[in-house]
Every structure is written in C-alpha cells, then in structure tokens.
Amino acid sequence: MDADKLVYLKRSNYLGLTSKDYLIICGDTGITWNIPFREEILRVLFDEFPCTVLFVDGNHENFDILNSYPISVWNNGKVHFISSNVIHLLRGQVFDINGFKIFSFGGAKSTDRASSSEFWWKEELPSDLEYSEGLENLYKYRNSVDLIVSHDGPEFILKRLKIPKRSQSPQMTSYFSYLYQNVKFSNWVFGHHHVDANYDKYFCMFNRIMKIL
Q1: Residues 107, 192 contacting (CB under 8 angstroms)
Q2: Confidence class of residue 26 from pLDDT cuts 50, 70 and 90?
Q3: Which alpha helices (H) appear in 85-200, and where do they start and end?
Q4: Which residues, 6 or more positions from 153, have their beta carbon under 8 angstroms from its beta carbon?
Q5: What is the pLDDT of residue 207?
Q6: Max CA-CA distance within the chain?
Q7: Could you tell me which residues come within 8 angstroms of residue 178 by beta carbon, excluding any fewer than 6 positions away?
Q8: Residue 151: φ, ψ to 5°
Q9: Of 1, 73, 106, 147, which one has the greatest count of Cβ atoms within 10 A?
Q10: In whole angstroms, what is the distance from residue 77 CA to residue 63 CA?
Q11: What is the pLDDT of residue 61?
Q12: Strand 71-74 and strand 77-83: pairing?
C-alpha cells in the first residue's frame, strides 16, 4: 500500500474504521525501506490511523531494517512492532484475534532481480525453518484457521491469473499447494501481482479494500 492509497483512506474518513478494527496489508508496505522522507510520510499517515495496521512482508522490503526490530509475541504469534499500531506478522504464525484465527506467511520471489540486484534480499523467500514452523503452528490448531494472509498465492490461482512460472518460487508453490489441500480455511488473501481478482475463496488484492469480518 503506497502513500496515495493511505491518503485516499484518510480523505474517506478511514472508511469508518475504529480502534476496534484491523487493517491487513498483504505485503510491500514500504514503511521500512531506508528512504527517510518517504518513510516519514508513511509513518505519519499510519500513526494517524484509528485502527491497528497489520502486515505480512512482501518481496520488496528492506529486511535488514525489518528484522532489526525485536521479536515480540502478540495474540499467540510472533511479530515486530514497527510502532504501537503498526505490526509486522512474522511468517508461519497463527494469530488468535478475538477468536478469529489468522495464518500469516509473507515473502515472494522478485521478478526484477536482474535489473535491481542491489534492492533485493535473500530473506525475501522463506527459510526452511519458517516453512516448518508454519506447519507446526497450524498443527496446533488442527490445521484449521479462518484466514490465510500471504504475499504470493497458490499455484492454481496464479495459473488463472496467467502469472508466468519464472516469477514463482518452486518451494513456495509446493508449500502453498500443501496448505490449500490440507488446511481448512474460510478465505485466503494475497497481494504481489498488482491486480484485483478473486476465485471462490481466494482473493488477490491490489487497489481494493475488502471487509473480511
């Protein structure tokens, strides 16, 4: 979500959001990128939000900065507190928010590595530990959650969106295939592909804002 979208929300009176609400961003938030002026604008806008902002990491993050924040436990899952109301949901966590269970799994493969080699980090793709921790946490909840939030999406949805294979990570594709075959969930939302589209209970998010509950 860029500054223009945040300004739109502000001008729209935050769509009626209150301190009891949560706004979830599906990656590439841009609040930790080491561009001081841009970050300052984003932080001011985020801090003015009446609700709590949650986000999973995308592939376009400065992971050196993002991972410098201490890890805390919030609603049963690991997080980074960027500020009091902006919270990074770490990969492979299950959060219990008022009885609503959310599984978070950020990260994706950059498609522009060749042209922007100094602006990507190896941490954009999950580690083996993050993959296994995600499965362990899901098992604790009997492989049943209400919502999956990720940056990339499952393979069969990407095929419908005509996303080329070269832009996908085989390991993440295999992992997400396991999730949609073995985990019970009501909705799966993801970003990354710069398009608004949905099929059944899978939602690719770009410009739109959708009410989940």
Answers
A1: no
A2: very high
A3: 128-140, 155-160, 170-182
A4: 161, 176, 188, 190, 192, 193, 202, 204
A5: 82
A6: 45
A7: none
A8: -95, -45
A9: 106
A10: 19
A11: 86
A12: antiparallel
Residue 163 — very low, low, confident or very high, per pLDDT cuts 50/70/90? confident
- In contact, 169 and 108? CB cutoff 8 Å: yes
Sheet holding 187-190: strands in order across? 93-97, 100-105, 147-150, 187-190, 202-204, 197-199
Token pair belonging to 196: 């608004």
Q: Say whether 166 sits in a helix, a strand or coil.
A: helix
Q: What is the mean pLDDT of residues 2-24?
A: 70
| Domain chopping of the chain, boundaries | 3-204
Write out pLDDT tens, residues 107-132. 998 876 655 555 678 899 999 999 99
Q: Give the single-character DSSP code of 123.
A: G
Contact 89, 54 (CB under 8 A): yes
Instruction: Tell me how far apart the alpha carbons of residues 29 and 22 are, in angstroms, rounded to a whole number.
Output: 15
Radius of gyration of the chain from its Cα atoms, rounded to whole angstroms? 16
Identify whether the C-beta of residue 85 lies closer than 8 Å to the C-beta of residue 53. Answer: yes
The model's pTM is: 0.89
C-alpha dihedral, 71 to 126 to 107 to 146, nearest 10°: -70
For residues 58 and 191, the answer to whether their CB atoms sit within 8 Å is: yes
